[in-house]
Design goal:
By secondary structure, the protein is of the alpha+beta class. The protein is built from 35 helices and ten strands. Strands 3-4-5-8-7 form a five-stranded antiparallel sheet. A three-stranded antiparallel sheet has the order 6-9-10, with no helix packed on it. InterPro entries: Adaptor_Complx_Large_Subunit, AP1_complex_gsu, ARM-like, ARM-type_fold, Clathrin/coatomer_adapt-like_N, Clathrin_a/b/g-adaptin_app_Ig, Clathrin_app_Ig-like_sf, GAE_dom.
Length: about 775
Amino acid sequence: MVASSLKLQELIQEIREAKTQAQEREVIQKECAHIRASFRDGDPLHSHRQLAKLLYAHMLGYPAHFGQMECLKLIASPRFTDKRVGYLGAMLLLDERQDAHLLITNSIKNDLSQGIEAVQGLALCTLSAMGSAEMCRDLAPEVEKLLLQPSAYVRKKAVLTAVHMIRKVPELSDIFLPPCAQLLHERHHGVLLGTVTLITELCERSPAALKHFRKVVPQLVHTLRTLVVTGCSTEHSVSGVSDPFLQVQILRLLRILGRNHEESSETMNDLLAQVATNTDASRNAGSAVLFETVLTIMDIRSAAGLRVLAVNILGRFLLNSDRNIRYVALTSLLKLVQSDHSAVQRHRPTVVECLQEPDASLSRRALELSLALVNSSNVRTMTQELQGFLESCPPDLRADCASGILLAAERFAPTKRWHIDTILRVLTTAGTYVRDDAVANLIQLIGGAQELHAYSVRRLYSALAEDISQQPLVQVAAWCIGEYGDLLLEGTCEETEPLQVEEDMVLTLLERVLQSHMSLPATRGYALTALMKLSTRLHGDNNRICQVMSIYGSCQDVELQQRAVEYNALFRKYDHLRAAVLEKMPLVERGGPQVNEEAKESKEVAQLSEAAPVPTETQASKLLDLLDLLDGPSENAQHPPPLDPTPGDTLIHLLDLPCAPLPSAPIPNLKVYEREGLQLTLSFVRPPGTPTLLLITVTATNTSGGDVTHFICQVAVPKSFQLQLQAPSGDTVPAQGGLPMTQLLRILNPNKAPLRLKLRLTYDHFGQSVQEIFEVNNLPVETWQ
């Protein structure tokens, strides 16, 4: 049976000649049967050949687990041909999840102790490929001895194995510290590259190693300067760049050693400037070295001039024909725009040109960077460029572009008229893509600019007459026409072109909005209210308006029907009150973010005091077990009783907030989280009449250049507390200091125990998903005493 077995070359040829998958499976199954029989018979001369065929079948995706024990036998064999195939089989068929891999530990140890370089190399390769934590602990002394072997081949393999060991078992770092200092003087390219990689792993995982290797910064600087100035062997040069792989690895190590360390940073400043100026960026190898140099400059405590040089290198990358290099440059500049804003501003024209890139990822990164570069001095120019991009950008970028323009205009608008014109143009161009709060913000802006009421209503009327498909624009226009329709008919505005408007024209336009199939129910509600308000602004007969209200009194939409019925009642029963009810809205003062935040918090407290929903016991238990992030209380701690909706229960009175004013001495706010411009602040309110109840308002603000989207804040408390989370104000935290996102927490503390919170934040920022879990133990004592 074994005699009829195929040779490896014959097996490969038969598999390639198979015309169907079934024929291939038949060949593999037949040969695997021969291989099993050979393993059972224990043929020592042909075992390595049978295992080689089995490994080929494994590479094609067929099961080969029955060859694991044969690998162990071949590794223990004294013949090199057997060991070679056995170690290869161990690397392919064994891993940490199988206990069989521990059986080769002794064989590897014996092979490492031999003086045969080829056998030592096989053992080291296998250990670095599939060595588990237990194997690494057992074999670390043998690998440490081989680091100083005379053979460069063995030293290189040993260094790479040490890298694997450090990644598996970081506590082994002390064993490899002494040999690394000697290996840095190595002239062999492979050994030196592996040594720098090993030191990098040690410094990333051990503070003691980081402190130890800061002493070798001058030596690393000398090695890198030699590579840049005199070069190394031409064998390792790539496109005219001397050993770029070693240069990149040394730069990464220097970045780790110089981070937050003034002396080390000062030592490498001159070298980084030399690398940045002498490296040719026309080829990918040079660009890789330059990019790593830029990252190192930005991560250490480098001089201001050197940071400007790094930004200029990224600016040159933007002119590169390679899209990957341009994408890397845009991403890096976006990270630097907060710390080196003025240096990045110099490359604004090039960034704006990147908006027209056909590649969607490039144009998105260019858009994010362009929005981050907007400030009070360039807001007019940048907004004009962004509006031009908005007209031709892909649909998947319109929402981000429109939101970014609106936020920039709100933050840096030079005049109210310019602000209104900018928002109107965005609504006209991409009204269906704007954020939900754009309508309310524009209404608030127009309402607070009394001198621009006539100008705004005429602009909006003209825009509405041209296009009624952009729903946010239609809503704002309908509100403005209803509020300031008398100014539209007067025609006294000198800032716009002469526009003759008749009452019938205005009514016809609003009726057209009501009848359009593109109008949303909310838009029709705006139009109905506008018609009702015009009944007191216009001087003609109101019969036409009454007819419209009568028609919508039987509308299928409940909201529109209720609104129309109420307006009909004003006409029929309370006509004497109609003028007073439909008066113009008072001027709206646009306060700062703090004013808005306090007003929002007061409003939420007032709403909770009117009618606070009492959760059932099941809901309360779910809230208590939220995320299961906090441990339970001690055995002596008393659990609060479940919330019972019966009137006699005292907990109901604890949750009923009185209408008394807030305490005179407010509890100070607490900032609990900050990362890349996103800040999370907690503000506290304790109602005077309910000392066991604490209201916490979580406020998220974003000063970075990109929106924080899909933001979710989850909170857990110890089981001796009761927690109720209210719905957040949204899931997006706008960029550039836009309107903050808030969420209210109600915490009942019947035992007045010290309060601690555990928060889990999940959100998307700059195209990356972020998840943070942290505990807050430093809450003010006023929150629980």
